[in-house]
Write a structure and sequence with these properties.
six-stranded mixed beta sheet; Rossmann fold; four-stranded antiparallel beta sheet; alpha/beta; binds adenosine-5'-diphosphate; binds magnesium ion; 10 strands; 9 helices
């Protein structure tokens, strides 16, 4: 039985939700599976992430999201977090007045901030007492956010473009982080628009114009993606769906 099962979800944005963003999207993830979601900018990858996480204003107008076979469509973010779903945002968060140590440990049990930071390639000695504010680079904030997701030991981690940011994480960094999740038995929905990143997954799917148009091995999907994608998703007319 899949850990996450997204069935036929429809979601529109804007006034009266009339701008179609996802139009009958289905996707499933097994326990502990790393599943890459490839798609050009604007295809709806982050929107899917927000729907699975249950962010404010993101509820599908039809379709089902099941986690551990329970329908979670109506659950708020904190209840989904309690079930073991966590997300690292495309734009990492910034908090004024909180140290990295506190950010990684407050409200969490049995967290080892030192090993979490090491797993994302940061030096605990240099980082733990710094503030999670504008003095950190984009790449550092990204790593610290990934460290906090790792520290939680979730059942499902949604990583929205872990390689994006002002000074990007290299593919090597992303591979290390994904391997740390693998070691923990965490399933990962790995959102990216780079086929090299998708290559480290167990399985992959391509999102195009609000639908999954190809699923299978990362090699197969990356090959399809290379041949069949637009520069950006203009959401007007699509050749591929
Ligand atoms: P991706 O993460 O794949 O780049 P997004 O999920 O961020 O794509 O966005 C998908 C599409 O939905 C884009 O065309 C974006 O402009 C549009 N969109 C996202 N949120 C809203 C919103 N609140 N209102 C109107 N359009 C939106
Ligand atoms: Mg996005």
């Amino acid at each position: 039985m899949p850990l996450l099962e997204v069935k036929n979800i429809v979601f529109g944005a804007g006034s009266e939700r009339k701008t179609p963003i996802l139009s009958g999207l289905s996707l499933s993830l097994e326990q502990g599976e790393v599943h890459a979601l490839l798609g050009t900018n604007g295809t709806g990858k982050s929107t899917l992430a927000y729907l699975v996480m249950g962010c404010e204003g993101y509820a599908p107008s039809s379709g089902e999201i099941r986690f551990d076979s329970v329908v979670i469509n109506g659950l708020p973010v904190h209840e989904r977090a309690r079930l073991g779903i966590t997300m690292a945002w495309q734009e990492p968060v910034r908090f004024e007045g909180i140290s990295v140590r506190d950010y990684l440990t407050i409200g969490k049990k049995n967290v080892d901030p030192v090993s979490s930071l090491q797993m994302v390639g940061l030096s605990p000695e240099l980082c733990l007492d710094r503030m999670v504010d504008k003095c950190l680079s984009g790449g550092e904030r990204k790593r610290i956010e990934l460290a906090s997701v790792l520290a939680l030991g979730p059942r499902l981690a949604i990583l929205d473009e872990p390689d994006s940011g002002i000074d990007m994480l290299s593919i090597h960094d992303v591979i290390n982080v994904i391997n740390a999740f693998r070691k923990n038995g965490t399933a990962v929905l790995l959102i990216t628009h780079r086929e090299e990143i998708a290559g480290i997954a167990d399985r992959a799917s391509q999102l195009c114009y609000g639908k999954i148009i190809c699923s299978g091995t990362p090699e197969k999907v990356a090959e399809h993606y290379k041949m069949k994608h637009c520069q950006t998703c203009d959401r007007v007319e699509c050749h591929y769906v």
